[in-house]
Amino acid sequence: MRRAGWVAGAVLLVDQASKYAVVQGLDLASRQVIAVAPPWLTFRMAWNRGVNFGLFANDVGVMRWVLVAVALAIAAWVWWWVARAPQSRKVQLAAGLLVGGALGNVVDRVVYGAVADFINMSAPGIANPWSFNVADVAIFAGALGLVAFAGGGQKPRDAREELR
């Protein structure tokens, strides 16, 4: 689990450093939009009070803490699930990505009251209205990795063997 811990720590550090550099350092919070390499990459400020794509977003203060608790519970469960038995490097990497990303967004909710999303990627003729952050990418990649690689070393049990 040491590998998962290092990955989670690195993701948390990169996520928070990128948010600080762009939102505070480049003053995106007040500028709102910075065209980096349009349309491919634009920094577009979005304070996400919900989950993916703003789902479950509202201004009720208690929802902030519910989402913090849910993220912490999921991160703790993934950590426990991966730690309970020896896992492959890929599974540990995926768990670290997911946990680090979840913690990065938790820090935002605690400090700012919302998650700071700022990366906006589009293509010529296609305007993507949504922004995301490094933590979101890590969560997505980690979840995908856990689905793809977890349980790969285990032989499926045959129900007939259980009856013998």
Describe what you observe in this structure.
By secondary structure, this protein is mostly helical. It has one domain. 59% of the residues lie in helices and 12% in strands. The chain has six helices and three strands. Strands 1-2-3 form a three-stranded antiparallel β-sheet. The chain starts with a helix and ends with a helix.
Share of residues in helices: 55-70%
**Main beta sheet strand tally, sense and closure:** 3 strands, antiparallel
Number of domains: 1
What is the arithmetic mean of pLDDT?
Answer: 86
The largest beta-sheet arranges its strands as 1-2-3
The low-confidence parts are none
N-to-C terminal Cα separation, in Å? 36 Å
Computed Rg? 18 Å
Number of helices: 6
- What structural category arises from helix and sheet content? mainly alpha
Please state the overall shape, judged from the principal axes of the Cα atoms: globular
Proportion of residues in extended strands: 5-15%
SSE arrangement, N to C: HHEEHHEHH
Let me know the number of strands.
3
Provide keyphrases for this structure.
mainly alpha; globular; 6 helices; 3 strands; three-stranded antiparallel beta sheet
Question: What's the helix and strand layout?
Answer:
Elements: H1 2-25, H2 28-31, E1 33-37, E2 41-48, H3 61-83, H4 89-112, E3 115-120, H5 134-149, H6 159-163
Antiparallel strand pairs: 1-2, 2-3
Helix pairs in contact: 1-4, 3-4, 4-5
